[in-house]
Amino acid sequence: MYAQQILIGAQARISMAGDQTKPKAVVLLSGGLDSATVLAIARRDGFAAHALSFDYGQRHRIELRAAKQLAAAFGVEHSVMCFDLRQFGGSALTGDIDVPKDRPDSQMSHGIPITYVPARNTIFLSFALGLAEVIGSTDIFVGVNALDYSGYPDCRPEFIAAFQKLANVATKAGVEGQGVTIHAPLIEMSKAQIIAAGSALGVDYSLTFSCYDPSPDGSACGRCDSCQLRRKGFAEAGIPDPTIYSEP
């Protein structure tokens, strides 16, 4: 095990050294399958990725362990920003509200669910924008998806376009004419298409975690919206789902 860790560390250092000549990009990495796929896409497209995760008081904080494992597997730099959105509440992910379970497709595809965290992606992208300026990057990658998105308003193309416009009037890079680009390569892809694309790029989805309400032993519930979309995506892609669910 120790020898394996040394090898992984050496591979990561070699990878980072090779990234010095590439353009830099900040990649939002939650630890889920969407963000893992986006990280693979950013690397494929020739960017030196700096992964950024958030500990914001989410009940499924286990996803941060997945993010750390993914960053190590890809050999990229990884930062975790900490702040507490539980002070606001208003979401089943940050407040004392039950996570919905076993919702049919008809419910998941309409309305804004209680698992929506108010302004979360606006906050995340704002932090990413700050980090991008510090490391000299004009590219930010985010894994939002407008098809299998469970009704979140900050996962729509309109939101990404609006934030990019904001980024280009609120930053030094934008004012000086370099421009900031918000990349959302999954925005019009189904979950099955995302999984197929990531698999083709070698993403190890066994390292990812998507559940909103994990069991005490760390297994996914299999019944929340996120678990259902994940299960459906793997089934439709015809790719085995490596997830450990607490319920079959």
Please tell me about this protein's structure.
- This protein has 248 residues and is of the alpha/beta class.
- The chain has a single domain (2-190), classed as 3-Layer(aba) Sandwich (Rossmann fold), CATH 3.40.50.
- The protein has nine helices and five strands.
- A five-stranded parallel beta sheet has the order 3-2-1-4-5, with helices on both faces.
- Helix 3 links the parallel strand 2 (48-55) and strand 3.
- Helix 2 (33-44) crosses helix 8 (191-200) and helix 8 packs across helix 9.
User: How do the strands of the widest beta sheet line up side by side?
Assistant: 3-2-1-4-5
Into how many domains do the coordinates divide? 1
Structural class by sheet pairing and helices: alpha/beta
Describe the global form: globular
Mean pLDDT value: 89
| Helix share bin | 40-55%
Strand percent estimate: 5-15%
Distance between the termini: 32 Å
The level-1 CATH class = Alpha Beta
CATH topology assignment? Rossmann fold
CATH superfamily: HUPs
Write the CATH architecture name. 3-Layer(aba) Sandwich
**Unreliable runs, pLDDT <50, ≥5 residues?**
1-14
